[in-house]
Amino acid sequence: MPTAKLFDLSGCVAVPVIGWIGAGRMGVPLAGFILKAGYPLVVCSRNVANRERLVAQGATAAATPADCVKAADIVFASLPDDDALRKVALGADGVLAHARRGAIFVETSTVSAEVSVEVDREASRLGIAYLRMPISGNAASAQHGDVSVFVSGPEPAWSKVKPVVQTFSKAQIKAISAVRSRRAT
């Protein structure tokens, strides 16, 4: 009698689930490149039309940041300002309150060094790696994956995130010092 052969998964690499918060002019195209590369993506955005554009490309919609991050290994936030980042990252329904220990939070927003340091402190306290990743480019360059990113934060987290970031950026520059990078933005 023949026996069923089980799949040998020893050489397989788990594909991280990506959470994306903020589907605006930059977020939609960048998240779209991640989807095209085959990563599972959960999207949360106040802009329903943009969220639905990503759902049409294969993303799963989430109603809140909490819902977005619960299953995510890596969470990106693309937000307009300090107040939005504080609410999304530090709020009761936010990323850090609901992300799993060991998750990675990548913040691409245009924010002050002060709020970035606040988020970093709380993420560290909770066992969540935090990468600050400002993006150089605009909505038109994002449409073509023609943006550059400047990253600061823990190297082990960056090594896990870099393949995802390479799906939507032409250049990735890792800062030597996270603190110095945050002060420079």
**What is the percent of helical residues?**
40-55%
Going by CATH, the architecture would be 3-Layer(aba) Sandwich
| Proportion of residues in extended strands | 15-25%
Low-confidence stretches: 1-6, 180-185
Instruction: Give the name of the CATH superfamily.
Output: NAD(P)-binding Rossmann-like Domain
Averaged pLDDT:
90
Strand order of the largest sheet: 3-2-1-4-5-6
Notable traits:
9 strands, disordered C terminus, disordered N terminus, 3-stranded mixed β-sheet, 185 residues, Rossmann fold, single chain, alpha/beta, 6-stranded parallel β-sheet
Q: Helices, strands, pairings?
A:
Elements: E1 18-21, H1 27-36, E2 41-44, H2 48-56, E3 60-61, H3 65-69, E4 74-77, H4 82-90, H5 95-98, E5 104-107, H6 113-126, E6 129-132, E7 135-136, H7 139-143, E8 148-151, H8 155-165, E9 171-174, H9 178-184
Parallel strand pairs: 1-2, 1-4, 2-3, 4-5, 5-6, 8-9
Antiparallel strand pairs: 7-8
Helix pairs in contact: 1-2, 6-9
Walk me through what this model shows.
This protein is of the alpha/beta class. It has one domain: NAD(P)-binding Rossmann-like Domain (Rossmann fold, 3-Layer(aba) Sandwich), CATH 3.40.50. Helices cover 40% and strands 17% of the residues. The strands form two sheets. It has a six-stranded parallel β-sheet with strand order 3-2-1-4-5-6, sandwiched between helices. Strands 7-8-9 form a three-stranded mixed β-sheet, with helices on one face. It is globular.
